[in-house]
């Protein structure tokens, strides 16, 4: 073929390729429009100067990640009930995100439609696959009917351990006593040593300690949550120390950084195709999550070496017992089965990820708010003095005697909104009132804004325990706009445990110590309290502690 003919041949084929590509794009656009016309979603978010949400979708998501406290509230103001955000990607198609900004919308979207829960499950994405290590038996995944029994069994195990173990609360208070002893020894009592021995002064100064100043206080509060969960799961715990590079502290940091690395709206659009363009993020997550998984594998190995099949004291005991029952019944066990040893570790892994962060972050918020509001902190202490005294440990049975404290804890749960955006996903195409939502639509419950809705909360941006009392000064048992642990049918499985831990830690620490907030100089707060990833976490801070006489 001559050069001239070859050139003409190539030009012709290029023209045909361009024509085919153009026809393909037109067909794709037409098909997309036809498919879109099948569904009717809430109003699409409109970006203009009036609502101040951002210039466009990308700008809005960036604003949400940089300052969620302002933009989640602005979103509710612009769209008081519900709204929609479509994230279009040529490779992965269109992702539909519906924001529910009022409790009325949550109720509407939670209703059962032909036995299909409209917001039944969490969105499928790469993050959950990372966390669950690819196995089906994770606590927090329900992507099919075969997983319902798995979740039911897991809940049964936790419930039996918490309700039937007469020493369960004592284990919690024993752990808390170890933290109190550590604080006394490391940050309080060493002041007395200064007066008696000069060497102690030099030693303490060498360690960089200040009188009563607990550096990076949230890490200790997250560790007490970690110890509660590991005790429940494996019957083990980790000692408190002042070393910032202690293995358990490193792993707690790994969890926090993993869950704080991505904003929830971004995660919903984060699938296997997108990972081609997010390799840096994948490596970041993989390194931290795998490190934590290896750390727990070692702990699980130590547990197994002392395993006694006749005794059921921990969650792992319960699951291994179930595993043995299945073997006796000659059931075939796969790696994805709920009772294989690999999956036992995966379930424990997800329990640790969720339990350590949700409870640990909430404890961090609790001391953050109370250390900044001295008046409320002292009101809690005064109620403790009046009703239960200061000479002995406070237990859950005394909770009803501390209504003001209970109101404060509710306020902490409301303001902290650790689950600021609660994710759900449609399992099928569903119709809800006038809306037709396609399968796999992501639904984000804007709990942060709902917890500050001025229609339900008098002083919505600060602690205001008084709004939890009725006109007769009796503590209210319920507020419909209060959803710190999600909404049915997928409320947090550890809500009662988390509230119990929050009560025990707060009242027993306030009973013994006075807390003063000290900001971390490495953070520019700029009027913000914390940041939003999968969960909401306060910025790091320090605490100046004084032992109450």
Folded structure, characterized:
The chain contains 19 helices and 13 strands. The protein has 549 residues and is α+β, with helices and mostly antiparallel strands. The protein has helices spanning 3-37, 57-66, 68-78, 103-110, 126-132, 148-164, 168-188, 190-196, 198-206, 217-234, 247-260, 264-268, 279-305, 315-328, 341-372, 374-387, 403-416, 447-450, 495-512, and strands at 82-89, 93-100, 112-113, 116-117, 213-214, 421-425, 430-432, 435-437, 442-446, 513-519, 530-532, 536-538, 541-547. It has a single domain (38-547), classed as Cytochrome p450. The protein is globular.
Q: Could you name the key traits of this structure?
A:
single chain, 549 residues, alpha+beta, Cytochrome p450, 4-stranded mixed β-sheet, 19 helices, heme
Morphology call = globular
CATH class: Mainly Alpha
β-sheet strand percentage: 5-15%
List how many beta strands DSSP finds. 13
The third-level CATH topology is Cytochrome p450
In angstroms, what is the radius of gyration?
26 Å
Structural class category: alpha+beta
What's the topology here?
Blueprint: H1 3-37, H2 57-66, H3 68-78, E1 82-89, E2 93-100, H4 103-110, E3 112-113, E4 116-117, H5 126-132, H6 148-164, H7 168-188, H8 190-196, H9 198-206, E5 213-214, H10 217-234, H11 247-260, H12 264-268, H13 279-305, H14 315-328, H15 341-372, H16 374-387, H17 403-416, E6 421-425, E7 430-432, E8 435-437, E9 442-446, H18 447-450, H19 495-512, E10 513-519, E11 530-532, E12 536-538, E13 541-547
Helix pairs in contact: 2-3, 7-10, 7-19, 8-9, 10-11, 10-15, 11-13, 14-15, 15-17, 15-19
